[in-house]
Each structure stands twice: as C-alpha cells, then as structure tokens.
Amino acid sequence: MYIVTAKEMYDLDRYAMDEIGLDGRLLMENAGRAVADQIESELSLSDGILVLIGKGNNGGDGFVIARTLLQRGYDVTAVQMVPSSKIEGDAAYHRKLLLSMGYSFVQYDGQESLEKLCDQNSIIVDAMLGIGVKGEIRSPYREAIQTVNASPTHTISVDLPSGVPADEGVEVNQAVKADRTVVIQYPKLSAYFQYTATFYGEWKTVDIGLPAPSQHKRSFYGKAQVQSTFPTRNSFSHKGKHGKGLVIGGASTMPGSVGLTSRAALRGGAGLLTLATVPSVIQALASSTLEATYISLQDLNGYILDVKGLDLSYDGIAIGMGMGRHEEAVQVLQKVLQKASCPVVIDADGLYALEKDTSILDDRDGPSILTPHPGEMAHLLGVSIPELLSKPFAYTRSFAEKHHVFIVLKGAFTIITNPEGEQWVTDTGNPGLAKGGSGDALSGILLAYIMQDQTIGDALCNGTWIHGYTAELLTAERHSEHDLLANDIIEGLAQTYRTLSL
C-alpha cells in the first residue's frame, strides 16, 4: 500500500484522466460508492445519516455518498456548506444528479441549525474539506468543525478529516476529530504523524481504480509483506548460514542493555553471537546468556576504551547499547565504522557518539543502520523534536541520502528509510513498548535479521514489524501494557514465529 502526498494524489488523478482516459465523474462515483459501502457496513435502516458537503472533490464525494445511501433506503440529510455557485466541475455534476433523481439537500444556515441536525442523526459523514487544506480554516467550515467535534454523534470522515493537512510541515489549525476515516485509494502522509494521526480515528482504505504511483517512494509494510519476504530455513541449515554477529557495548553500571541485545539476536535467529564488553559485564551475563561467546575489552571506570585489536570480521555488528557517553565512545564507534565492512547497527549511546561527527558515516565500505527514537534523531539533525515530528519523512530521507545510511525512526509509526530515499512504515506495537530495554531488544532482532537471506530493507521492516507484533500478542493474552518488559518480548518471539508460521 503506497503512502502519498497531496501533489502525488493530484498527479495520479490527472494521469488517470488525461493519460488513461478515466472520466473524473466516474472516479468520483467510484469514490463515493466505495465510501458508502463502508458506511453501510455499520448502519441499520433506522439510523439517520447527516452528510456535510463542501465545495471541492471531497464535497463531490459527499453528493455521491448521499445519493447512494438514499437509493438504498436510508434516512439521509445532505447539507451543502457553501452556495451552489461555488460548486464546480465534477462535484457540480454529481450535485445535479442528486437533484435530478428527485432528492434534495439542505443549505447550511448556521451553527444552531447544524447542532440540531447533529443531535437528530446517528452518523455524521464529514465530506467538507479534502487534501488541499493549508492555513486558517475559514467560515463556514470553522463553525461546522466546532459543532461536529462538540457533538457525541459518531463521525466518519471521507479521505481525511476536514482540516487535517495531507502533507508534512503543515500545522493543524482546526480539524474534525473523526471516530473513523475512509481513505480514498492511498493513505496520505498525515495518517502516520504523531500529531495528526489521532484525528483520523480508525481508518481503512478503499480502491477507486487509480493506478499505482509511477515511482515507488513510500509504502506501508504489513503482515503480508513480512510473510512473503521472511527467509525460510531448509533441512541442511547450520549455524554458519545464519550469521556470525558481534555486539559491542556495555558498562559496569549498565550490563542489562547488551544482555538484552545479545539474547534478542540469539532468539531472533542469529547462528553465532559474540559480545565484546568490559569484564564486569561478562561476569554478570555469562551465566544467563549461555549461547554467546565473550571478548573482554579494556575497562576504565566501567567503560569500554579500546577496540584497536578487536577482530571485526563478522556478518553483522550492533554497537552502542550501554556503551556510555564519553569521548572514548566516540573513538570506539569511529574505529568500528572504519574497520568493519559488514552491516553495523548503531543504537543508544552509539547515536550519541555519532552526534559529535556524522561525517564518519560517509563512504564506509559496509551499510550503516541507525535506530534512533525521535529525540535521538532530532539531536543528530540539530532540530527540535516537534520540528522533526512535523516532517519525519522528509528529515529522515534527507539524512539517509546525505550520509548513505539506513534509518529506523522508532515510534508508534516506525519509518524505515534506505540510502536511496525509499521509505516504509510499520505500525505494530503498543504503549507496552514504552519502557527501558525495548530498543535494546529491537537492535538485537535487527542484528539477527540483517545477517539472514533477505535485503537489508526487508530485514529492518520485518524486524520492526515483528518486534511490535510480539508486544501485541503478549498484551492480548498474558501481559498488560503496564507490566510488559523487554525480556518478555525476547521470550515472546517464539510465539510470534509460530503464529506467523515463520
């Protein structure tokens, strides 16, 4: 499923009409009927439906929705929000068709009347404003949005809630807080932003016959993609075929972080795993992480100091967990990136070290994979967290292309970006993951996956999806979102693999 900007959606519309020859009125008919089908799935004939219709294509969809549901015998009140002179193009055609078939609409005449209509109906269908919203919401939409949000009546928005911008970097001035949104063809960027996603409520896409974008830029990565790309194992598999991994990190005060990463990598499927850390951490973990081997690194005040003589001929490396925030950590990261030719996952304190000099990422022989949360990504970019969250796709793409790296921007919607600027979104997980150690476990899973027979892009998408899905499975049965621990996620991978038949 592709994720598009407003311009990309407009371009698809124009291409479908100008190059393929699809009539715009037919596309609007398809859109309205598809939305009506979705609305009907939760209706009974006794329900009253209020359709609020704007002047653009979104409003045109509203005329089709009203007519379709009227034809099917539902009690529908259509409210035209603007004078008829402002209804143009394909929307005007469908307005005329509604009237020609013997139906009618009500002209909006103020908040008081609209409040009564909201109270009198079971469903409000918001078809007022579409993907072109920018800046201040003006009358009459401003008052209508206030009225809809104040009403307890169930609200369904068409394509996106009125007032919510489609694109990045556009502030929400005022918007409908929908209970549900029926998205036309492809989700827009704002469906995946922390500050706009809540306006959508639950949402689902409907197909209206538009072509796929000519250039792949952004896609949703879900269960079907995991099952089709996840590598299988044959009867002749052995440990050497599933990756020889190295974890570098750990301080005497933070032994758990590298322990979680190491155990997650082993549970994730790594064939062999070595942990390079300080002696005190080896003593703490050796009895619990039996399957790993260990390399002792020089220790001063509990911190790693020297990897000069460390053999880095591995299939994958994860670095940074519990490494400490000190000058020596910067030197450690720099040496690893310079010497290692395999994929390197950089997390936690490794990202902090990277802030000192991002140029060490440039032109290294092997792939670099950064796994920041928004705070860490904002620091790398030198912007505020709100600024990053207003344009997460653009910021991560720019950084990935500039430094030739993969980025896993963690969050409720995790954005995975490759060095060519292609992006994928995974949405599994829940607030149970908002706890120390979850990121360490994810790094271990990603380390295991990048060493398997799949592209690095698929490995990162599969890893983030499975990490979140495991949290969902565990909180549905044995745990709550309050008590879930990173260790539970690691142990729960077995259940995920069995559930997905991986």
From TrEMBL:
GO biological process: metabolite repair; nicotinamide nucleotide metabolic process
Residue stretches making up the YjeF N-terminal domain: 9-216
EC number: 4.2.1.136, 5.1.99.6
Residues that coordinate or bind (6S)-NADPHX: 57-61, 130-136, 141, 159, 322, 373, 440
GO molecular function annotation: ADP-dependent NAD(P)H-hydrate dehydratase activity; ATP binding; metal ion binding; NAD(P)HX epimerase activity
Keyword flag Aminoacyl-tRNA synthetase: no
Alphabetized UniProt keyword annotations: ATP-binding, Isomerase, Lyase, Metal-binding, Multifunctional enzyme, NAD, NADP, Nucleotide-binding, Potassium
Residues the record lists as binding AMP: 410-414, 439
Domain of life where this protein originates: Bacteria
Residue span(s) of domain YjeF C-terminal: 222-500
Cofactor note: Binds 1 potassium ion per subunit.
SUPFAM superfamilies the record matches: Ribokinase-like, YjeF N-terminal domain-like
Reactions it catalyzes: (6S)-NADHX + ADP = AMP + phosphate + NADH + H(+); (6R)-NADHX = (6S)-NADHX; (6R)-NADPHX = (6S)-NADPHX; (6S)-NADPHX + ADP = AMP + phosphate + NADPH + H(+)
Pfam families for the chain: Carb_kinase, YjeF_N
UniProt xrefs under Gene3D superfamilies: 3.40.1190.20, YjeF N-terminal domain
Cofactor: Mg(2+); K(+)
Descriptive protein name: Bifunctional NAD(P)H-hydrate repair enzyme
Source organism per UniProt: Pontibacillus marinus BH030004 = DSM 16465
